[in-house]
Amino acid sequence: MRIIPVIDLQRGQVVRGVAGNRQQYRPLQTQLTSDASPRGIAQAYADLGLSTAYLADLDAIDGAPPNLRLYRDIASAGLELWIDAGLQYAEQASQIAKLSISATTSGSASPAVSAIVGLERLSGMDALKAMLSVVGGQLIFSLDLKHGVPIVLPGCCTGQTARQIASAALEIGVQRMILLDLSRVGVGDGTGTEALCRWLRQQADLQSCSLEMIVGGGVRGVEDLHALADCGADAVLVASALHDGRLTQADIRPWLA
What we know:
This protein is an alpha/beta fold. 32% of the residues lie in helices and 22% in strands. It contains 10 helices and 11 strands. It has an 8-stranded parallel beta barrel with strand order 1-4-5-6-7-9-10-11, surrounded by 6 helices. It starts with a strand and ends in a 5-residue tail after the last helix. Mean pLDDT is 90; it is low at 102-108.
């Protein structure tokens, strides 16, 4: 299982996500570094031995253009990026997947980029299928929940449960999926998706699907990491627990990739 640290960006700053209430997010305070700039946080993650970061551009999710310059600056710490920029169309997904970023200024190979497609901005499964056809394995579908209920736009997956939406995503060929309950983010009360995680792993195994399953939101400490590994998670998103010191470098060392 991998540890994937999160960088939430809002108005060019790294902010602390709490319960999905984005209007109330505040600049991040962290024990990891004195430099809480986006580049500084990325470097702090790299210094912990982490190789990949989940980057949520909250302004883009709310409709602003993706901040490509800032993405490149963050990637210069040498991190592979999973980028959530509110993608809705195949052209947008292609733009992110093809983003040219360089880990250093010495001409070394660029780290990989994955494009996250969040349920909360998705118009329907046809749109997800179109994006999947363009970016293939670089696509990660985020099953966005709030208090266990899928967050959907009008007309998208109306009345469907999280299990039904996850099953539909598997059917169209999604091979990488995030289970994220936004009401749990930054609260430190556990992810709340353990049962869904176990069920989805069972479904993927029954259907012989190659599924990378990522779980996030509310990780409290090392006990949650062990519990999520037991549920079949391939990776766990973490932020507050790292910044508050509840997860140390020693705690995450067994999962460093």
